[in-house]
Amino acid sequence: MSEDTDSTMSTLIGAIYDCALAPDHWPETMRRICAFLDCGGGELWIADPATRRPRFACSWRQPGPATRMSLGTFPYAMEAHARRIAAAGDPDAPLVLHRMRGHANVLAGEGHGTVAPLPGGGDALGLVVLDRDDSLGWLGLARHRSAGLFTGREERLARLLAPHIRRAVAIGDVLELRTQERDALADALDGAAVGIGIVDRDGTLLHANLTARRMMQQDGPIRCVNGRLSAQKHPDTAALQDAIATSRPMAWHDRRGIAVSLGGPADPPALAQVLPLDAGSRSPGILSRAAAVVFVTPAPRNEAAGLAAVARCFRLTQAEAALLGRLVAGTALPQAARDLGIAATTARTHLARIFSKTATSRQAELVGRVHRMMPPVRAE
Fold it and tell me: Where is the HTH luxR-type domain (predicted)?
C-alpha cells in the first residue's frame, strides 16, 4: 500500500473501533469506507438468522442499491457465504457479486443467481462481520457500473478492514445485549414496592429503583447527598453509611445483612436493610464496584389487593379482614373499632381470632407477618 492508503486505512480503522462504543457513528464511518473502496452506497445489518429480522441496521445513501439488495435477496447469499467461509476457515473472505455464478454481466444489470442484480447495473461486495447462532451480521457495499467491477485491490483492502469491522461489531453487539439486560433488570427493580439502592463501599449510589427515587424526591426516609446514599436525619446517615462501609459478603446461610432504623419517634417508621454483595462473579464495569444493596422499607402499606390476598390465605372473615387492614395501617385497636363502628369487645374478639388463624400472639408480630406476605410490587 502507498503511504496515503496506509494513513487513510489507519484513520479509518480508528473510526471503525469508535463505532463499537458509539453505534450512531456507523453511517459516517460507512461513508468513509465507501469512499475508501470507491463505492456508491453501503449498509451494515445484524439480524436474527431464523427470522431475518434486523436487530441493528444502518446505511449510507439510503435507500441506495445496497439497501434495496439487502432488503431483497442479499441476506440469503450472505448466510450461505457465512457457512462457506466458516468451513474454509477464512472469515475475512469477501463475497463479490460479479464472481458469483450467473452474475458475470452485472454491469449490464444481468443476473440469474441467488442475488438479484443491482438496478441499472453495478457490482456488490459483502463481508460477514458477525456469525453466531443467534445473530448474523454483514456489511454490504455497492458501486455503480460507471465505477466498474470490484478488483483484486478492493478485495484485498476489504480483507484488511474485515477483522477490525468484525471486532467492532462484536464489541458493540455485546454492549447492546448488556444494555438490554441492564434495562430489563432496572424495569424489574422499578416494580418493587420497597426502595432499592445499589451502592459501592463508600456509599456512592450506583443505581436506585423508582421507589427509592420517589423517596428521595418526596422527603422520604432516604436522600442522595453529593452522590452518596444518606438518611434524612444525620444520626441515621452515620449509621447507614457505617453499615455500608463495614458490610462484607456473608455465608450463604446468613444473608440477612445489617438493619438500620430510619427516622425518629415522630417520623413514619422505615427500615434500611444493608445486604453485602459478592464481587467475585461480576465482570468489570460500573456495577463491579457495587458493595451492597440497600432495601428501604417505607411506612406500613395498606394496599387493598395485597391485604385481600393475605386475608384469603388465612381464611379471615370480612369483619376480621377489615380490622386487619386498620391494624396494618398503624391504627390502634380502640380507634380501629370506632372507625369500623363496632364495640371494643367485638374488636378484641376479632383480634383474638386473627391471632389464632395467623399463629401470632401480639399485634407487632401480626403486622410484621402481614408485611412479609404483602406482594413486593409497587402499587401505582
Answer: 313-370
